[in-house]
Each structure stands twice: as C-alpha cells, then as structure tokens.
Specification:
The protein is mainly alpha-helical. The protein contains 17 helices and no strands. The N and C termini lie far apart (51 Å).
C-alpha cells in the first residue's frame, strides 16, 4: 500500500453508486459492446488526474485557485462563473445520484420509502461534515467499498465471462442504437470533474516545501497509475458480471434485481451484500462531493478552504440541499443515478479545457508544463467528449 496515496481516495470517490449502477446497466443492456468506452474513460481519467495532481504538487495550489489567478477583470469573473457553474451544477446532480444510490441500498435492506432514506442519509452526511471527523468514517466506508469491489472481481472470475467477447468489445468502437447516453454516463462516472479539484487540493495540502520534486513526481505518477488502474478493473468486473447475469440471459436490469449479478459467489446473500455495498459507496461519495465543491468554489472566490469557515460550510450545505432536491423529485432511482453520470460527462469538457490551459502556463508550472503527448491526449479527450455530447443534444431535437 506504500505506493498508493491521494489518488486512492479519488478511486474510492468514483467507485460510488453511479459507477456500480452505470456499469451494471451498460453490461446488462449492451453486453461487452461498450468495453471500449470504459477503457477510454480510464485512460482519460489517468491523463486528467495526473495533470491535476501535478498542478497541486508543483504549485501548492488547488485547481480553482490556479485557474482564477491566471485572469483579471472580466476574464477572471467569467472564469470564476464557469468554474462555480460547472462544479455547482455537476455536484448537485452527482449528489442526487449519491444519495439515491445509498438510499436504494438501505431500502433493499430494510424496506421503506426511498425519500425517507434520502433525508436520513443527507442528515448523516451533514453531521459528519459538521463534526469534522468525517475522515475516520471515510476510511471505514472506503474499506467497505473495497470489500464490495473484491467480491465483484471474484464473481467475475467465477462467472467466467468470454474473454474473446471482452476483447471484441475493447476494439469494436461500436455505438449500439440508444447507447450514446450510456457512453457519456460511463465517461461521467469515471472521469468525475469534481475529482480533478479534489485531487489537486489534497496533493497541494500534503505538499512539502522542501520536497524532492523529481522523486515526488515519480511517486505521484505511480500512485495515480495504480489507483486509477484499480478503479478501472473494478468497473470492468461490474460490467462483466452484469453482461453475464443479465445480457446473456436477456434479463432486464431493474432496481429490485440489480444485485442478482453476485449470485454465482454469494447465492441467497447476493442482494443483501449488494445493498450494503451500494449504501457504503453512496455515503462515501455523498460526503466527498459537497466537500470537493466547497474546495473548488472557495478556491475560485479566494475564501479560506476550511471546514470551520462559515462560507465553506454554506457551499457544501447548498450542494447537499440541491442533492436532496434531485433525489426527492420522484425520478426512478436508476434513471436518477444515470442522469447524474451523464451530467458529469457533459460538463467534463469545460473543466478539462481549463485544466489543460493551466498546465501549459510556464509562469505557473515552470519546467513541469504539459508535454506534447499530454496535450495531445488531453485535446483528444476534450474533442471526443464534446462531440459525443453535441451529438446527444442534437439527437434530442432531430
């Protein structure tokens, strides 16, 4: 575990109910046809998270601070507005998915109305943030998420998915009818915009003034590679389990049978364990999302990013309330979670453009600016996600 660092928290943040649900729906509805989209998402996550963490390591600044410091006057106001809008809207939708996913888990265990669990979970998350002791709870929940992930990986091997079909899906680049929103959601649940702000802030806060930069950069890349790679493999295992349990048997994925994919390993206990894992993943992300939004908005506005700061508290409380609203308006649970991931995917290009711009600023990054390959991959990621998002928007009207 010595090679793992801040990026492991990023992995735990994106392996939330959105990833579980979206990967399950992708595998259950399209088999292995969208494996290529998952691989693209993992590569994109590594490229962008490496940039964000390098920014924090070199400058000691979070992403929001670094972005806004580069502009003045009207341009600065526009940059602040775009950052706040993107993260605020994205995290509100994402928070709705987090609360819905965790509530779905509790509802599966104890029954009751989903909206009641949403309010209870929001109260628990808020209490943890207000107490300042959320880190201890977060570690315990990360442990539960990793336990759930281990079961998915074990189940994948027991279920024995067709490796040839996985390879075909990895290189087919197919876009089955009606799957464009699912592709956007797969990207949005893996390359989470708020994680770019979270990663940069965590690395910046842990940065040492007398650090050996070359050594720190090497360790940072190893940490990012291992952590994001682990997250990608976990997501692939979920997709594979769903493809084997649902797509291969032509069974429709629904809220009441979503845990069926764990049956080969856990038998009658599959739904119970799945519910516990979904609750754990959702509560972990329900704490992280408003916290990351508070870091981002505080950084953009020049406020003190501290849990005891009233303005900082106001930001995460606003995101929490927005999440409650999204989760309580009666949208079907799986649809709400899928919408949150799609919203993230559509907002990603905005944040990615700002990140790439910042990483090419020599006065800020010195000799650690982006190289040709980083800019090339970053540009391709922005172009692909933007094109896919535009295609989806146009398809809604024509």
């Amino acid at each position: 575990m010595k090679k793992f660092g801040p990026a492991l928290l990023v992995t735990a943040a994106f392996i939330g109910p959105g990833t579980v649900t979206t990967a399950t729906l992708a595998g259950g509805n399209y088999g292995f046809a969208l494996v290529w989209a998952l691989i693209f998402s993992v590569i994109a996550t590594f490229v962008l998270q490496e940039m964000a963490s390098r920014l924090g390591l070199v400058t000691g600044r979070g992403l929001a601070e670094a972005i806004t410091e580069q502009f003045s006057g009207i341009k600065r106001l526009l940059a602040v507005f775009l950052v706040i809008s993107a993260i605020g809207i994205g995290n509100a939708a994402y928070q709705g998915g987090n609360l819905t996913g965790a509530a779905l888990g509790l509802s599966g265990l104890a029954g009751g109305k989903l909206v009641h669990w949403v309010w209870l979970l929001a109260a628990i998350s808020s209490a943890l943030l207000l107490s300042g002791k959320y880190k201890l709870v977060e570690k315990a929940l990360i442990g539960l998420v990793l336990t759930m992930s281990t079961v998915f990986i074990a189940t994948m091997f027991i279920a024995g998915p067709d490796l040839i079909e996985i390879l075909k899906g990895a290189f087919s680049f197919a876009l089955p009818s009606g799957s464009s929103l699912m592709v956007i959601a797969l990207i949005g649940t893996t390359v989470v915009p708020y994680n770019l702000f979270l990663h940069a802030s965590i690395v910046a806060n842990n940065r040492q003034d007398n650090q050996d930069l070359p050594s720190a950069m090497k360790n940072n890349r190893i940490d990012t590679t291992l952590s994001i790679g682990l997250g990608g493999f976990i997501t692939l295992s979920i997709l594979s389990c769903a493809a084997t349990a649902f797509f291969a048997t032509q069974t429709e994925v629904q809220a009441h049978n979503i845990g069926q994919q764990l049956t080969p390993l856990l038998g009658n206990y599959a739904n119970i364990f799945f519910a516990i894992g979904l609750f754990s993943a959702g509560l972990t992300s329900a704490i992280t999302a408003p916290l990351a939004a508070a870091y981002a908005v505080s950084g953009a506005l020049g406020w003190q990013p501290d849990l005891s700061n009233k303005k900082f508290k106001t930001i995460w409380i606003t995101v929490m309330l927005a999440g409650i609203t999204f989760a309580s308006i009666g949208i079907k649970p799986l649809a709400a979670i899928l919408f949150a991931q799609a919203a993230n995917g559509l907002l990603l290009p905005v944040i990615a453009i700002f990140l790439i711009w910042t990483l090419n600023n020599k006065s800020l990054m010195g000799n650690q600016t982006n190289g040709f390959l980083a800019n090339l991959f970053g540009g391709l990621i922005v172009a692909f996600v933007s094109t896919l998002g535009l295609y989806k928007v146009v398809s809604l009207f024509f």
